[in-house]
Every structure is written in C-alpha cells, then in structure tokens.
What we know:
Layout: H1 2-34, H2 38-51, H3 56-68, H4 72-82, H5 90-103, H6 107-120, H7 125-137, H8 141-154, H9 159-171, H10 175-188, H11 193-206, E1 210-212, E2 218-220, H12 232-241, E3 247-248, E4 251-252, H13 255-272, H14 280-294, H15 298-305, H16 312-319, H17 321-335
Antiparallel strand pairs: 1-2, 3-4
Helix pairs in contact: 1-2, 1-3, 2-3, 3-4, 3-5, 4-5, 5-6, 5-7, 6-7, 7-8, 7-9, 8-9, 9-10, 10-11, 12-13, 13-14, 13-15
Amino acid sequence: MKKLFVFCTLLMCSSLIAQKTVPKLIETGIEFHQAGKFEEAIETYKKALKIDKKSPEANCEIGITYISLKEYEKAIRHLNIALKKKSEVKLEAYIAKGTVQDLLGRSNESIKTYEQGIKEFPDHYLLRYNLGITNYLKSNLLEGEAAALKAVELNTFHASSHFLLGACQADQRKNVQSLLAMYFFLFLEPDTKRSIGALEISGAMERQGVERTSEKEINISLNLSEPNDPFGATSLILSLLNTGIESVNGDVKSAEQQFYDKTNSMFSTLKESREGNDGIWWDLYVDFYSQLQEHGHLEAFCYYIKQSNGGATVDWLNENEEKVNQMFTWTNEVYFKK
C-alpha cells in the first residue's frame, strides 16, 4: 500500500512539473519565433511535445513556425492535432490551417477549414475575413462579399475587411458600394502601401462609365443590369459629376477641391436615397458619411483619406490640424460611442 501511495505521489509530482514546464517551453519558443530564430523555436517546441505530445498550444505554435519555414505539410499535421481539443488556441489553429491550405493551392480545403471554424466561432471576424479572401482569390465574388460584409458587421474597425469588401464590389463594377467601403478603409488606414492601392481602386470607381473621346465629347455608360438598384441614382450622379465641375468662372479647380465637391454630392444623393433601405451599406456607411457631412467634418475627411497622394493634400492637413482633431473627437467620442 505504501509503495502504491509513493507511486501515485510521484505521478502527481511528474504531472505538476509537466504542467509548469510545457508553458515555459512554449513561451520560450514564441520568443525565438518572434526573434526570427525559427529553428531554435522548433527545437524548443519539440521539447514541450516530448512532455505532452497532445498539447494544443505546443502543436499550434510549432505549426505556425513550420509555416514560417515553408514546411507546410508538417504545419498541417501539428495544426490538426491542435484542433482535436478545446483550447485557447483553437481559433488561431483554424486560421493558420486555412492559411497553409491556401499557400499550398488547396483553396477548396481552405474554405472548408474556415467554414468549420465559423461553426465553432461564429462571432469572430477573422475567420469570416479569411474565408472572404479565399473566395475572392477564387473569383467567387458573391461569397467573398458575403463573408466580408459579415466581418465588417462583427468588427467595424478591421480595416482589411473594408478593403476586401471594396475590392469585391469593384470587381462587380458596383462603383458606389466600392467607394463606400474603400473610403472607410482609407479613414482607418490612410497612409500605408495598401492605401495607395485603395486610392487607385477608388479613382477607377469614381471615373467608372465615363470616357472622354475628344476634347469636347464624353461618353457615359451606365450599368442597367439592376433596374431597382438603390445606388443607381448615386452612380448616375457620380458619372455626370465626372463630366464637369473642373472649373468655376473659368478658374480650374484643384484636384482636392474637385474630390470634395464630388464626394459632397455623392453623400448628399445617398442621404436622399436612405429612406426605406437598410443593411450595412446604409446603417453603417451611408449613415456615418451623412452624419460626418452634417456635422461639418467632410472637408477634413476628404483630405485625410487622400493623404497618400502627398503634395497639397498633406500641406492642407498640416495647416488644418485642428479641423482633423475635431473630426476625430466627433467620431471617437460622439458618433461611435453612441
């Protein structure tokens, strides 16, 4: 009986040591990974797995490091183990596994992984966003749009979801919706490499359907595939605006002033079309832009989201810091706090 008691005590002590050792090894492995020392991280995680080969945390972290080393099949093997148990890293493991499958060109498997993850974590925006990206890259634009819309609904301030939504709309030639999403992205992320891409897409959407054939002739083509499109009137106004407002009394307007005038007209038209419409396009985007306009912050907004253009735009921002600060005081302390 004494021998049995001693044996059980030793087992308990061994288990307690393992419980303390594995997390420490994982923490050290993460530090190696963050320092770019991937091989050292792998060896450290292997030590943790020798103690507990089914540890979700150790398997997830070693899987993520294998991704950095481009050893994708090894990554999937460990991520599958991490997904077998409930743990704090299960969401991360789903995202990592779907990413690896995408990198291997197995996008259909990636979609299934994200959809499985969504069943377990229906309220997490990153799974929706990643699902949207994969569908977008497969040219499944409607599926990509649906996932991006849900991601935006779950996290209004995730800039990448707005970019994805804007790109899905641009590829469907839905210029107004694309601009609504891209402008919000630029509001959240105005001065990065992606911002330049967003401005390029926005510029194309602003000019969509307008072609100058000569100095005096301009052709306007409209998308009439959806006759009951609630954004149709705004799209028409946008096209018409691109045929004029380049000068006042013979004085040519700056590009910045032209953009402000077009955006002001666009938002005003959307506000007039608001009644009877709902959903994210109206409840988030149109309502926000309408209130922004109504509270006198549209000018600051127009310059702020275009700052990647540099030049006169940045000069204006430097000279009007107070207007920009007032805009953010309103958005942060009034509009998004209500």
